[in-house]
Amino acid sequence: MNETNQMKVTKFCSLFSMNYIIRALILTVGTSRDTFLVGVMLVTSAYMVIILFRHQRQCKHLHSLSHLRASPEKRATQTILLLVVFFVVMYWVDFIISSSAVLLWKYDPVTLSVQKFVMNVYPTITPLVQISSDNRIINMLKDMQSVCHHILKKL
After folding, report:
1. Angle, to 10 degrees, between the axis of helix 109-133 and the axis of helix 135-154?
2. Is the pLDDT assigned to residue 155 strictly greater than 70?
3. Cα(99)–Cα(64) distance, rounded to whole angstroms?
4. Where are the transmembrane segments (predicted)?
């Protein structure tokens, strides 16, 4: 088969061309699957938020009114919502980029690079959000910093 009937994705990966109906079918099935799975994730995240909200309401008498900080439940809820919204946005941006490439039958290096960047943003940012929301980790990092500073002073 000659190369004009192939779409080059990368140097080592190429796809044979498909007719429009097959591409539309693949896109429809992929969209349905993705919508269902993102919907399941949203429902389970909403369930966690509801459980945290109920727990916060039940334990309200334990939290002193003198505390200006948000309760652990509220911080966990904010973290869950932030991660879920960020995941859904990044997922659909990636999906739109890859779907447009499949429909247009064109994978240029710029599109592929943007897609790789978008795919890696969420797994890069998520641990940083989780670390910043956990005071124990922040305190441990501060302790490590002071120990390193102390050791460097002695040298």
Report:
1. 90
2. yes
3. 51
4. 12-30, 36-53, 79-105
